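In this section we walk through a basic example: taking a raw amino acid sequence and producing a predicted 3D structure, encoded as discrete structure tokens. The instruction is simple. Fold the sequence below.
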Amino acid sequence: MSYTIKYQQVIEALARPLSFEDGTAAPEIAAGEHRLGIRLPSALREYYLIAGQFDQLNRAHNQLYPPSDWFADAGKLVFMEENQAVVFWGIPTADETDDNPPVLQGVNISNQRIDWYEEHGCCSEFLRLMLHWQACCGGMSFTGGADISSMALRRIQAEWPFVGEMGGMLVFARNGAAICVIGEGEALQLFAGGRTEHDFNLVRAEFARLDVKLDIT
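The resulting token sequence is shown next.
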């Protein structure tokens, strides 16, 4: 399955089908590449081509850069910024034969160089997981959150399809609904989103049976 189809399926499940206007124009991507002397790997290029301007998910919390804002640092192409600019995300540019490179997170401390370490082993999976996080942080029309117990997490793991893990965050999804869990031990936080009010109410009702009350955000 191509990267494009995988992205389309995730975005449609979380929000709506993509349209032509949601993509970044190829000449705009080419201009960004030329400015930095790099070439995007297929996993990132295909995302921009179909969804680079889909701000509902790309800028709901963290900020996907347009090609004009890409910058290079220590051999990394930086394409995304955390919502408070505490960290950046980028891909290594040294190996242009890798069409699905790892994504690195760069810690941004004032007056210090950016400290990079690997966030996820492949770009396409990073983007899929980030879409779910963005959806639960305001990209979906209905969102909420709650503190949960490790027992509640075990129920989620047993009953919800698992999407993946990134940086300690666990991601689960059903068509029209997504949940992300962060933390460890008994200090766990749940973030949930529904594509429609009906989708979200089903999630709320399910968690109410686990004595988890979702606070609407």
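Looking at the output, two observations stand out. Helices lie at 3-14, 26-36, 42-51, 55-58, 123-139, 150-159, 197-208. The chain has two domains: 3-127, 140-211. In the next section we compare this with other chains.
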